[in-house]
Amino acid sequence: MDKRAFSLPEVVELTSIGRSKVYENITSGHLRAVKAGKRTLVLSEDLDAFLKNLPAVNGEL
């Protein structure tokens, strides 16, 4: 069974997006997070949707 939810440190490691940026995206509503007691989790489908909605580079770096 694939993992269905990730802790914030796991999100940082899986995506290579910095911790501060992950928190910014949660605060701004771009990345949905849920609470399970004191733990903050990101559901796998929410992480997938967030990554799919990131803007394309279009040849500009």
Main attributes of the structure:
61 residues, alpha+beta, three-stranded antiparallel beta sheet, 3 helices
Account of the protein in words:
With 61 residues, the protein is of the alpha+beta class. It has one domain (5-52). It contains 3 helices and 3 strands; from the N terminus they run βααββα. The chain has helices at residues 8-15, 19-28, 44-52, and strands spanning 5-7, 34-36, 39-43. Strands 1-3-2 form a 3-stranded antiparallel β-sheet. A hairpin with a 2-residue loop joins β2 (34-36) and β3. The longest helix is centred in the middle third of the chain and has 10 residues, at 19-28. It is globular and about 40 Å long. The protein starts with a strand and ends in a 9-residue tail after the last helix. The mean pLDDT is 95.
Task: Write the SSE topology.
Layout: E1 5-7, H1 8-15, H2 19-28, E2 34-36, E3 39-43, H3 44-52
Antiparallel strand pairs: 1-3, 2-3
Task: Name the helicity range.
Answer: 40-55%
Using the alpha-carbon principal axes, give the shape. Answer: globular
N-to-C order of helices and strands: EHHEEH
**Span from first to last CA?**
37 Å
The residue ranges in which pLDDT falls below 50 over 5 or more consecutive positions are none
Largest sheet features: 3 strands, antiparallel
Global Rg: 12 Å
Number of helices: 3
Integer count of domains: 1
Category from helices, strands and their pairing: alpha+beta
Q: Can you give the mean pLDDT?
A: 95
